[in-house]
Amino acid sequence: MKNSTIIWLVLLIVGGGYLIFRTGSGSMGRAYVRHETFDAKASFEEQIQKIDAEEQKAVSDGKTLDESKADARKQLETRLPDLEGITWTKVSSAERSELTTDDGQPDPAVVFSWSRTIGLWIAALGTLAIMSFLWGDNVFYKLAEAVVVGASAAYAMVVGFWTGIIQNLFGKLIPSVMRDTVLPGLPSTQHTEWIYVIPLVLSVLMLWRLAPAGGWISRWPLAFFIGATAGIRLVAYLDADFVQQIANTIMPLIVSDNKQGLMIGSSIANFIIVTGVLTCLVYFFFSFEHTGAVGTAARVGIWFLMITFGAGFGFTVMGRIALISDRFNFLFYDWLWLPRPGIDA
Length: 345
Fold this sequence. Notes:
64% helix; extended; mainly alpha
């Protein structure tokens, strides 16, 4: 058996034993939630009071309340009698410090959650499975990789369906139905916007590709979506990556202020930016041989490019370090329940 295999095996046994001990003692790997109950009628009355306060403020300023808010208050008052006895419960994650009250007694509003505990363990074991690639390609890493890819695709599909079709499409076409079924928080001022019939028709036509015949019909909405997206992105990129870049380069080399006079720091910074832009452009200008003054400017441009690439690479590395640091925080504090410096006693 290889030495590396023996080392990893020992670490696995020690780590597994430690996890079994901590889990058995009940001091790790548990998720708790806080239950808060809200009354629907009280919530509506609070919204009505806010609108009344806005109306009083508007009257004191010699103005009138916005018509949309007046309609919203009227709808709230109309639905108020039907909300008697209707309540809902908000469930939120609870920190370890919230398990007990200030006097050391268990908080009755904080309860153990099996579903979130299972999710916590899946996340922790999945993190360890991904990190097991340091040992080498193995079945745990492959399983975790497949789960991440599949879950990401499913999550993207569900989010796209909910935000694109339910909220942005049906929420605009049939707001009353959505408000009474799946979108209770939809503003009462939302009315039917018939312009959204156009994307509905285009979406249905795009699904025509799945039909046995007439698949060519789906090319029309597809061409529209691609053309519209390309046009929107072209304008955005042209403004952000071209026009704004040029505008930000046009700056005074000597910066002065009426109160402070000559601002040396800002002047030096502007001079460095302008010099860097010009010398980098010279480096990529190949119509002249890079000799003499042109060669000197090109070599200065190389220095600016290398500094920029180095800073970009360093920023990328720091981003990856931040990600691994967040994972370690999750494993150590959220899963293993190790004491957090300066927070837990």
